[in-house]
């Protein structure tokens, strides 16, 4: 149940960051949280899916990948203006790693289908 709810929870939290009306001091922190949630959506490194049926829905994960990257990029762009350089660099690094990890998950789901397992 936690595996199934983890994606929904992170997606909901990332969506809430789009509409956050915070103080200017919190903008840098919000710019860090959006890429961090994207990194969380990449999932753990040791599993692709608990069920092979999840791998058949790689197209859904591809669409989610595009939407989540666009949302995290928008939040990053919206809240990154000014502030500390170290937090900006950390948020940029987490954004790059989060995109790579989420893309890796989608590619793993795409390549882990029944026909490739038989061969």
Uncertain residue ranges: none
Number of strands: 0
The main pleated sheet reads as: none
Number of helices: 6
Helix-strand category: mainly alpha
Radius of gyration, rounded?
A: 16 Å
Helix-strand topology string: HHHHHH
What does this structure look like?
This protein is an all-alpha fold and 119 residues long. The model has no long low-confidence stretch (mean pLDDT 78). The chain has 6 helices and no strands. It is elongated. The relative contact order is 0.19.
In short:
This protein is mostly helical and 119 residues long. It has helices at 2-18, 27-41, 52-55, 58-79, 85-111, 114-118.
Q: What's the helix and strand layout?
A:
Blueprint: H1 2-18, H2 27-41, H3 52-55, H4 58-79, H5 85-111, H6 114-118
Helix pairs in contact: 1-2, 1-4, 2-4, 2-5, 4-5
List keywords for this structure.
mainly alpha, 6 helices, elongated, about 120 residues
């Amino acid at each position: 149940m936690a595996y199934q709810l983890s994606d929904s929870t992170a997606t909901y939290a990332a969506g809430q960051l789009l509409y956050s009306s915070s103080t200017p001091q919190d903008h840098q922190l919000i710019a860090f949280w959006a890429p961090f949630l994207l990194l969380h959506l990449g999932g753990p490194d040791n599993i692709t899916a608990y069920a092979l049926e999840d791998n058949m829905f790689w197209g859904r994960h591809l669409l989610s990948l595009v939407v989540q990257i666009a949302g995290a990029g928008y939040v990053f762009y919206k809240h990154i203006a000014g502030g500390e350089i170290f937090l900006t660099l950390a948020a940029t690094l987490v954004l790059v790693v989060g995109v790579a990890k989420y893309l890796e998950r989608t590619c793993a789901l795409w390549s882990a289908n029944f026909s490739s397992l038989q061969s």
